[in-house]
Amino acid sequence: MSPSSANTSRESSSQERTSPDTIPPAALEQASLWMARLWSDDATDAQRKACLQWRQAAPEHESAWQQLQAIDSRLGALPRHAARSELFEASPQVSRRHLLQWGGVALLVSSLGFGLPRTPQWQRQFADYSTGIGEIRNVTLSDGTQLRLDTDTAIDISFDDHQRRLHLLRGGVLITTATTADARAFSVMTREGLSYPIGTRFSVQQQADSTRVAVYKGRVALERRGSSDKMMLNAGQQAAMSNAGMSPTEPLDPTELARFQGRLVAEGMRVIEVLDTLALYRHGVVRCAPEVANRRVSGVFSLEDTDRALASLADALALELVYRTPLWVTLEPRGDS
């Protein structure tokens, strides 16, 4: 589209667009991701066409795009060394992901004030490895280390001559370290600190306000960020790190490992707890009537087919599933009970 026709299109649709204050944050997030893709040197015609289709799909999409374009125009008026054009002419040894993280998109996002680099969409888009909601993925790293990424997980990998580091941005990962000798130190970094495995199999979960580490084989040393707090976990133990400190060690919860295998093992769990776990593996809303929330259930439920899991839960407790839409499900008492 030529500049003149683009201007005409913007003018003709100005009355249809929502005001900047009412643009949904999700639309701004997606618009920023589209802009990041199209800024890169390897952007394809298919991506440009897909972006145009997304913009045309809803008025708020086009409004979000135009708001970001307005900021981009202001960036273009900056001195050359501050503009995004120089960022993408930098050394080819710098990855596009890192350019996008600290370059033009970061400046654009900070000017919006939405903190997009901390959102799930942003983290999954630009992480080295990631999974969507309900997805479980296996990854083998260059040193032979095996990862199993849980639902809604994003992780960056940083290997160099001196260290091998995984940065868990969100979600959870089951790690089986390589059996071959490697002099480089191996560690997993989260918001709360570092985990150093010693010939082991362990899992790390980045939770809302803490990091939980469980050791299935070998040992893992924990080091809390910003303090001298340290702890050694042996096989069969788990603990958590938070800003407040480290929790006491606890016996390993075997049901956690089952989650990485696509199963929820419930042993006397409350219905609301089962639903909260299933909700991590499906899109939409899962709720229950207040009178059934604290009923308890035992069983094994699929995390790979949450509709089947919900049906099994309803059958086990003689409850009824009400689908208001495919993405809005409520567990209620049966009408004849």
UniProtKB/TrEMBL annotation:
Residues 128-220 form the FecR protein domain. Pfam families: DUF4880, FecR. It comes from the Bacteria. GO terms for molecular function: sigma factor antagonist activity. Gene3D superfamilies: 2.60.120.1440. Keywords: Membrane, Transmembrane. Residues 29-70 form the FecR N-terminal domain. Residues 1-25 are annotated as: Disordered. Residues 8-17 have a biased composition (Low complexity). This is Fe(2+)-dicitrate sensor, transmembrane component.
